[in-house]
TrEMBL record:
It comes from Pseudoalteromonas spongiae. It is an enzyme of class 5 (isomerase). Belongs to the pseudouridine synthase RsuA family. Gene3D superfamilies: Alpha-L RNA-binding motif, Pseudouridine synthase I, catalytic domain, N-terminal subdomain, RNA-binding S4 domain. The keyword RNA-binding applies. SMART domains: S4 (SM00363). Its EC number is 5.4.99.-. This is Pseudouridine synthase. Residues 1-60 form the RNA-binding S4 domain.
Length: 223
């Protein structure tokens, strides 16, 4: 059931499962179950709106500006939803916190979103980070080796100092506010965080400026 909702572009499979648990999904007028098998002949409603399976999947990249929230809430003027094409319902693959900016991928392909948001998803994500205090070699080594974040030790990563207060970091995991938490643990603070690349996709190559988006191919995400 959750797969059908995700494939219809309503939300991710994880979010769809929550909607089923919350009795927000109806199948032919009755509350849906996770094990329901449905097809085009069934009437599926999510929060009172009828849902039909999509025949076309879409993939977009956007330069998320600072101050924009990745939660897709129409009533929130800071929501990312107001920057997206209105004719397609999209949701983000991963997130950037409100105070960060840079590359974000979006799709209505719920199956792909589920796969790429899984903890085993290890595509590289590259960031340029500016700190409040000068960076030391010890700081870089500590960041690379792994530090405690939310009860786990972060994976080994690549860290390269750019100048006195700026470094480049390449991660293969996406814990909540990970770079900010890592930086704080190592005795410094982030004042600017910009994601410049996801896998082989970079902001520079896509020629995106803050608030702008472009359509991309699925292969550009999965390659």
């Amino acid at each position: 059931m959750a797969k059908f909702i995700a494939d219809a572009g309503v939300c991710s499979r994880r979010q769809a499962s929550r909607l089923i648990d919350d009795k927000c999904v109806l199948v032919n007028g009755r509350p849906a179950n996770h094990i329901d098998h449905v097809d085009a002949s069934d009437v599926i409603e999510v929060n009172g709106q009828q849902v039909k399976a999509l025949t076309t999947k879409s993939y977009f990249a956007i330069y998320k500006p600072i101050g924009v929230d990745c939660k897709l809430i129409e009533s929130d003027p800071t929501s990312l939803v107001h920057l997206l094409p209105k004719q397609i319902r999209l949701f983000p693959i991963g997130r950037l916190d409100k105070d960060s900016h840079g590359l974000l991928l979006l799709t209505n392909d719920g199956e792909l979103c589920q796969q790429l948001n899984h903890p085993d998803f290890d595509k590289e994500k590259e960031y340029i980070v500016t700190t409040s205090k000068p960076i030391t070699d010890e700081f870089c080594q500590q960041m690379m080796s792994g530090v405690p974040v939310k009860g786990v030790i972060t994976r080994r990563c690549e860290v390269e100092q750019i100048n006195e207060t700026q470094f480049r970091i390449i991660l293969t995991q996406g814990l909540n506010r990970q770079i900010r938490r890592m930086t704080k643990y190592c005795g410094n603070y982030v004042v600017d965080l910009k994601r410049v690349r996801i896998a082989s996709l970079s902001l520079a190559e896509l020629n995106l400026t803050p608030g702008k988006y472009c359509e991309i191919a699925k292969a550009q995400i999965t390659s």
